[in-house]
Amino acid sequence: MQLVTVLGATGSIGVNTLDVMARHPDRFRAFALTAHTRIDLLAQQCRRWQPRYAVVANHQDAQRLAESIQNGSGSPATKVLWGEEGLVEVAAHPDVGTVMAAIVGGAGLVPTMAAVHAGKRVLLANKEALVMAGALFMEGVRSCGATLLPIDSEHNAIFQCLPPDYRGDPQAAGIRRILLSASGGPFRTIELEQLPRVTPEQACAHPNWRMGRKISVDSATMMNKGLELLEACWLFGVEVQQVDVVIHAESIVHSLVEYVDGSLLAQLGNPDMRTPIAHALNWPQRLESGVTPLDLIGAGALHFSAPEPARYPCLGLAREAGEAGKDYAVALNAANEVAVAAFLDGKIGFCRIAEIVAEILHRWEASEPQDLAVVQASDARARHAALALIH
Ligand code: NAD
Ligand code: MG
């Protein structure tokens, strides 16, 4: 029986994780569930899963949740905690084995790192944490004996296409490059002149995936692919130059690994996050996930093309940040989070997102991110600068 903490249980990845777990009650039990908003959904999940802990943002929400899950008879099974301290407690608790890191954005950094340092089996959806603290994160995985399994569909696909004993040395494994699939998002074919006027609703209407609002906007700008490029470098020990992005509108080929002998290995499937979630939950064994098997004949033709730099400037910015090293990726991620939130709030236009990120990067005074405190300070500095630009 695996005890699982789901950080971000009420989000798109969190809900899909519980869906897969529910299909295997003999294998998985929820140890802790956490949420930032949507307390009603968390209460419902707590009644269903009876986790030992639930974590919310603050004391007030904790009281609301506790009242809502109390059934009137005796003491409730779930202890309610709050704040970052609560998240860290349930991520690093000695009784939990598996942590699904599915909080969105930099807010996931500290609890995800706590799970890494406690040597957990970490299922990583929260790519921002790895982008921000890559070197520290991977060093933590090595030195603390954590098992890191990628949930991002592309990275999970790559993981499946690598040799089972892969140890982060692409040359030794005969790997020439990695190809990340990108759907191109909702604005793949619209006229470039229309981009400045697109709305948050249009940006969040992804053609193939149902996801949270932040990652949906990231998919529309392709900052998501930029973050994934940096994520791939840390996860698989490859250089920025060894990762290429290919637009594949159907989202059926989830990514590919090219070997020196000319082989190109890919993982295919319907676009449904329950496949990578099930893969990681039960790795190295396979698990029924509820995903409809891919019908190749029904899928028809698959298309591949190169991303246009003018349509997706964020992809180039992420590449630049990766090549520049130091804490440039922290600045990139923080500026993007602030800009995306402002776009979703109707404060800036869509094309301002890339402009703000570019401006922050180009005047960034870099530091060496030697510990988490430096990463957090750089993150705060970039957020502050991005907010100043918006106002
Ligand atoms: P979402 O917005 O649907 O859910 C986010 C979750 O994080 C919610 O449970 C929310 O309550 C919690 N949260 C938000 N802000 C928080 C804060 N400040 N403190 C604590 N908790 C907070 O997002 P999502 O689409 O599920 O994405 C989650 C992560 O997974 C992101 O990093 C995203 O890039 C990654 N990811 C998502 C998908 C997908 O299909 N949705 C695919 C690949 C990767
Ligand atoms: Mg992805």
Describe, in plain words, how this protein is organized in 3D:
This protein has 391 residues and is an alpha/beta fold. It has helices spanning 12-22, 39-49, 59-69, 83-92, 109-117, 127-144, 153-161, 200-204, 213-221, 223-236, 274-282, 296-299, 313-324, 328-344, 350-362, 372-390; strands at 2-7, 28-34, 53-56, 79-82, 98-101, 121-124, 147-150, 175-182, 243-247, 253-259, 264-268. It is globular, with a radius of gyration of 20 Å. 49% of the residues are buried. The chain binds nicotinamide-adenine-dinucleotide (NAD) and magnesium ion. Nicotinamide-adenine-dinucleotide binds at residues 8-14, 35-37, 102-104, 107, 125-128, 152, 209, 211-212, 215, 273.
